[in-house]
Amino acid sequence: MSILVTGGAGYIGSHTLIELINQGYKNIISVDNYSNSDESTYARVKEITGVSVKKYAIDLTDKKSCTRLFEEEKIESIIHFAAFKSVPESVENPLAYYHNNLGSLVNILDCCREYSCNQLIFSSSCSVYGNSKELPVTEETVLSKPESPYAQTKFFGEQILMDAVKAYSNLRVIILRYFNPVGAHKTGLNGEPASETPNNLVPYITQTAAGLKEQLQIFGGNYNTKDGTCIRDYIHVSDIADAHILALSYLSKMDKQIDILNLGTGNGVSVLEVVKSFEKVNNLSLNYAIVDRRDGDVEAVYANNSKAIKLLGWYPKYGLEEMMKSAWKWQLHLAENN
Ligand code: UFG
Predict the structure, then answer these.
(1) Is the peptide bond before 136 cis (omega within 30 degrees of 0)?
(2) How does pLDDT run across 287-328, given as a tens digit for each residue?
(3) Which of 251, 258, 262 is nearest to 308 (CA)?
(4) Is 16:39 a contact under the CB 8 Å cutoff?
(5) Nearest alpha-carbon partner for 182 in 260, 248, 274, 266
(6) What is the DSSP string of 58-86?
(7) Hey, which residues are catalytic here?
(8) Which of 153, 132, 159 lies closest to 143 in space, CA to CA?
(9) Is the CB of 46 under 6 A from ligand 1?
(10) The whole model's pTM is what?
């Protein structure tokens, strides 16, 4: 019986492959269509772990390919990362987000039903909380309006799963609501796949520091926050990966069909604080400017993470400075190898 990791060549997916291997899991299968990643990720996973993961190049929105995969492999559980993840891109191209993020989920669930695969971990996002009045947010916090099509796809994904467990009594699902995953593997050998147009703050910071981008733009300096910039809960990608390994064990003994867990550190950090921390720990000075707000951004969100701590026995190990150090180490590694 195998564990299927979708989006295994991606940022969180590849760090989770590493932790699964480190924890002694065998029979791991990864699928990816490399839309936002690269096949070379698997070589990095092998460099760190010594293990070659079995891989498929598949677009999960294609039902035939998805079915073929389930036909060929006996899949017992799925960690479903594969999805688009950029807020601004989703505002520009909402249909691509609905098609990709929801089409793949529906196909996977269909195959789960047909091939009796009953355990699924779903990558959701703190973006489902919208502009919440209650901070930190708990899993019980009433969800406010999603601010972007990306956030909508995560909200709808959760709804689809809630309906699916009602209809299919064997299905067990854990929804993990990630806060903002950043940083890189402690070896500096694996991190967020390089992209010419980084989707997120930290890759933009590291590329600016490396001279690949001229200037970091900070979107909005007049939010009602401590320094006027948005607040997020940045969490180390390896801490997020660890939580998946613990969630796999929790899934097999869970006494309900579906559960939701926040994966954050509990610390609300502003964009300017991230920049300052990066500058300090890496002894660098960043060229940045505060510009207009970005469409689709929420003002502030950070987690109450006590449910994940209690149910998974998980605790985030890394602080902001380690996140910023490892992100820079990864950027330097990329520069040396290009
Ligand atoms: N930001 C900038 N400049 C940039 C990029 C981002 O100021 O060049 C700001 C944003 O406006 C926001 C903060 O940095 O205030 C974080 O933005 P990101 O784009 O890094 O992250 P988001 O909060 O928009 O969303 C991210 C991912 C999602 C993930 C979500 C929480 O895009 O995939 O965090 O899990 F789901």
Answers:
(1) yes
(2) 999 999 998 889 999 999 999 999 999 999 999 999 999 999
(3) 262
(4) no
(5) 274
(6) --TTSHHHHHHHHHHS-EEEEEE--S---
(7) 150
(8) 132
(9) no
(10) 0.96
Q: Give yes or no for a contact between 123 and 178, defined as CB atoms under 8 angstroms apart.
A: yes
Q: Are 118 and 108 in contact (CB under 8 A)?
A: no
Residue ranges of alpha helices (H) inside the chain are 11-22, 41-49, 63-72, 87-92, 94-97, 103-114, 149-167, 201-209, 237-253, 271-282, 306-312, 320-336
- Cα angle, residue 6 at apex, residues 98 and 297 outer, rounded to 5°: 45
Nearest 5°: the CA angle 195, 200, 201 is 115
Burial class (CB in 10 A: 0-12, 13-18, 19+), 181: buried
Q: Which among 200, 208, 227, 262 is the best mutation to test ligand 1's pocket, defined by most ligand atoms within 8 Å of the CB? A: 200
DSSP code of 303? Answer: B
Confidence of residue 338 (pLDDT cuts 50, 70, 90): confident
Closest to 244 (Cα-Cα) out of 81, 126, 116: 81
Inter-residue contact 219 to 289 (CB < 8 Å): no
Residue 271 beta carbon below 6 angstroms from any ligand 1 atom:
yes
What are the tens digits of pLDDT across the range 38-51?
999 999 999 999 99
- Say which residue the tokens 């300052």 belong to: 276
Residue whose CA is at the smallest distance from ligand 1 atom 24: 87
Q: What residues have CB less than 8 Å from 212, skipping those under 6 apart?
A: none
